[in-house]
Amino acid sequence: MLSLLIWVPVAGAIAVGFAPVPPRLLKLTSLIISGIVLLLTLWLVGQFDASDPAFQLQEYFAWLPSLGLNYDLAIDGLSLPMVVLNSFLTWIAIYSSNEKTERARLLYALMLLVGGGVAGAFLAHNLLLFFLFYEVELIPFYLLISIWGGENRGYAATKFLLYTALSGALIVAAFLGLIWFTDASSFTYESLAGQSLSLSLQLVLLVTLLIGFGIKVPLFPLHTWLPDTYVAASTPVAILLGGVLAKLGTYGLLRFGLGLFPDAWMFLAPGLATWGTISVLYGAIVAIAQKDIKRMVAYSSIGHMGYILLGAASLTALSVVGSVAQMVAHGLILATLFHLVGIVETKVGTRELDVLNGLMNPIRGLPLVSALLVLGGMASAGIPGLVGFIAEFMVFQGSYSIFPWQTLFCVVGSGLTAVYFVILLNRTCFGKLDNAIAYFPKVEWRERVPALMLVISIVFLGIQPTWLVRWSEATTTQMVAAMPDTSQPLALQTFTQEIFAPRISLGMQPEPLPRS
Amino acid sequence: MIQFLAETAWLVPLYPVVGMVLSLPWSPGIIRRTGPRPAGYVNLLTTALGLLHGVLAFPAVWHQEPTYLYFPWLEVAGLNLTIPIELSALTIGATIVITGLNLLAQVYAIGYLEMDWGWARFFAFLALFEAGMCALVLCNSLFFSYILLEILTLGTYLLVGFWLNQSLVVTGARDAFLTKRVGDLFLLMGVLSLYPLAGTWDFSQLGEWAKTAELAPATATLLGLALIAGPMGKCAQFPLHLWLDEAMEGPAPSTILRNSVVVATGAWILIRLEPVLALSPVALTTMIAIGSITAIGGSLISIAQIDIKRSLSYTVSAYMGLIFIAVGTHHIAAALLLVLSHALAQALLTMSAGSIMLNTITQDLTQMGGLWSRRPISGLSFLVGVVGLIGLPPLGGFWALLKLADGLWESRPWLLVVLLIVNGLTAFSMMREFGLIFAGQTTPMTVRSPENIWLITLPMTVLMGLTLHLPLVLQVAGLLPSWASLDKNVALLLLSSSSMGCLAGALVYVVQIVSTPVRLPVPAIQNLFANDVYTPQLYRSTIVFGVASLSRLANWVDRFVIDGVVNLVGFVSLVSGEALRYSTSGQGQFYLFTITFASIAIALITGWTLISQSFPIL
């Protein structure tokens, strides 16, 4: 069952790549294949028992037992939303691609391959298997960026390749270190989850892992590949990169960082929360200065990933489930924004803030695209009623009692988000359209469909957030409950709190949010 | 039947939502045959239904204890978010005011925006506001109130930016959004920090909690200040006041709603939060200080404006300042009464001003004059609005201000002085505006200025009637003081401040005993108020400058320091490994080929073990 999510797209990729599919049917074929995957995913959601926090629907197949590498898949509340997001956004990305591009056959094959590979990484229940799937993305994405990218694609693709290769190396180092020091028999997640390493070893491994995944997320200052890559990538690739691939980083942080190194994670938590906050503020502040709307959206991504780290560091049931929700919310919102920015670029021919103007004009502008852009931007800025708000709010409310200052600064960051989106919307959608240049090609309905679908999901999940959190609540709650007990007067923890988390004493001690 | 309507009064906010969704098909490019007008009519209908529902349900809740309904929304990880709805005479009465004013504004808009192309958008936004405000007054939870306020902030952005191809409109929309957002974010901080302390966001439970809560003074102060900041943005209080002035660039029908009820959303939250705010003396003092500064400053600025709508907008700020004072001194009933009387009178003034603007094709007061003979209905409406706003008996404003003045007389006499000054200055400002529009000689702009079509004049006249009848309504509701309990001294003080203001304004601008335009002996003072106390410059030189410089600096660091280091590392390794030149075409492809080949090889090797295991024969 789970294997189908991986191998159907891979088989589809082979079919699209090598079978004699006529060029005009390539996109349709890929859409059908990824549509099947999407349906399979929905069916999987039906099979999933949301009240069970453990791994479900496990599939096991001994592969290289001597290496500890087994074909071992399972799904839980942390991976399910990611898998759904991946299937959905892959479909959207394929739908929003342009079939008249050169080497379309390779493009569709690669996109399907990427979809299958990312699903594999989210489903892997074995650390080495996860790493293999994680690394397998690298080459297709390198090709996707360097062949179909825009300006500077060679530079961007190389940068992406080097950064991600480094990230992979660090991650595998941490995994290998873990297995060497624990004498575990295999890379199976459970066999490593219960390890009891000394704190200093845990710290070394966790920091390695943090840098590895921090590149992927990305977190300041490991982010410089992101703006170049996202901007150089074509719209569908940017959707996949920002919407799905970056989630591998945050997923890895939660699954392997928080899950495998609980003591070290607790130790570093105040630092991690501060790191997340710095990323939030940094991403937002740099985004304000951008003159290219795609670059602005790319920087917004850095900011929004910071909230996830804050929520994961706070380790309350609410903040962690909020982090998972924020991953989904961010994926949907970023995909919407990239798609719409892509439409603006193709129709108007520029992404420059200083050139764009008045696209809301109902006659000669792009009114619907502008309206959706307003919604997307506002969702990103955290306006309630849209999915971004409730995810951020859960993170904030969950984190406030643990890291009040970091949380408040993140609230400020969400205000700065509003600043650059208002700049973007004011320059792009509002204003007077120059009639002399306003001969834009018509926006076809098929170009609007992906954005409409994304916006509908953003609004729906914003109004009905239960549908966003019910899948992961059991798992994340258990993850938090499995953490070492904070109430124990561990000398180390007291030390940590004194050093890193000067909790502001708010008079009456807050009634702590329930941890289970 | 009435009971049923009362129990289902939570539907009132949903009518406009339906109208909003139904007007979507008339957005550009979907339905072309009918033109955009049906969108307006649909919304008119849904608003009328909402009003009808409220009016019919009202008798059932009158003199009854409030009832509460609960709708579960989200329950996750120990956080239980249930939407509490309070059905009481106060909340349903507030929805009647909101839907009623919106109905009048919509009829007005049909006339006012006759030639406009954005009907679907405009009416959908009006409906958004109506829905948001009705939900806000019905909702009994700070958290959901915050949600609604934020959605209304977005609504303000879109509605102010309705005429989006004018540059002043665009900057006005931007400033309105960002200013309100600043307030909202502080409110969010307050919301976040209140929950761990109180364990609830329900206003009624917060009130209970506040009675026994013992907070450290610093906590209470920070919490109180954060909670005040949201209403400060909404009510256009100093220093977050400029947006309302800039929002006057938006279409007049939306201004009717904004000046009367939208700004009052902040006051409403403030009133509901009063028990929590009362925990901190510093917060209360801050509220009083901000309210006083805004009230006096706003009425002074109002006198110096030459734009017909901007002059009105500063009296809105001033009156909201009075409400801040009222809440800061625990005069809740007076604050609510002031919200009501101000809403009706201000809506009437704005309608009258809009009806003048439409036919004189200018908003500049200096280009107007001599309209009394040509525009008697608008003129009468304006006068009734003035009397309803300031403390002149027998209309609503007098009773509201009197109630506040009465309370201040006992406790804080110097705030009574502030109140009297503000009242007098407002009276002067309004009479000035009246004089400049209606008195004196006609100007080229006002020579041909007949009354508008009935779509504009009728709602104005109806509202004039409502303003005139407000005292009767208050009488029936038992909100007027009896003659015996009336403090005649305070009433006389209030009356004299109003009449002095009116008299001075009338002498200068209606009878024109001095030549207009009036020049003060010290032009600096006049310029100070005419330029909104240089607030735009203040913003630009502080917060805007700060954020812009910081972002430019961060961008520079990002590009040249962080990315520079990365590129340097890359460059050094490239130079040392001369063979790897990815960018040249032939070798780049070779590189790709190597990667692909190697990965396929690895895949085959690992895959082979897999296959050989599953099929041992191989």
Quick one: biggest sheet of chain B?
A: 2 strands, antiparallel
State the end-to-end CA separation of chain A: 31 Å
Distance between the termini of chain B: 82 Å
Protein structure class of chain A: mainly alpha
Rg of chain B to the nearest angstrom? 29 Å
The percent range for strand residues of chain B is under 5%
Give the rounded overall mean pLDDT of chain B: 88
Backbone shape of chain B = globular
| Overall number of strands of chain B | 2
Write the SSE topology.
The complex is a heterodimer of chains A (516) and B (618).
Chain A: H1 2-18, H2 26-47, E1 56-64, E2 69-75, H3 79-95, H4 104-123, H5 127-136, H6 138-148, H7 153-182, H8 189-193, H9 199-216, H10 225-232, H11 235-260, H12 262-288, H13 293-314, H14 317-348, H15 367-380, H16 387-400, H17 404-428, H18 445-463, H19 466-469, H20 473-481, H21 491-500
Antiparallel strand pairs in A: 1-2
Helix pairs in contact in A: 1-2, 1-4, 2-3, 2-4, 3-4, 3-11, 3-14, 4-5, 4-6, 4-11, 5-7, 6-7, 7-9, 7-10, 9-11, 9-12, 10-11, 10-13, 11-13, 11-14, 12-13, 12-17, 12-21, 13-14, 13-16, 13-17, 14-15, 14-16, 14-18, 14-20, 15-17, 15-18, 16-17, 16-18
Chain B: H1 2-7, H2 14-22, H3 37-61, E1 67-76, E2 79-87, H4 89-112, H5 119-138, H6 142-160, H7 167-198, H8 203-212, H9 217-234, H10 242-247, H11 252-262, H12 264-272, H13 274-277, H14 281-304, H15 308-328, H16 332-360, H17 376-389, H18 396-411, H19 413-438, H20 454-476, H21 488-510, H22 523-530, H23 535-576, H24 585-614
Antiparallel strand pairs in B: 1-2
Helix pairs in contact in B: 2-3, 2-5, 3-4, 3-5, 4-5, 4-11, 4-16, 4-20, 5-6, 6-7, 7-9, 9-12, 9-14, 11-16, 12-15, 12-16, 14-15, 14-19, 14-22, 15-16, 15-19, 16-17, 16-18, 16-20, 17-19, 17-20, 18-19, 18-21, 19-21
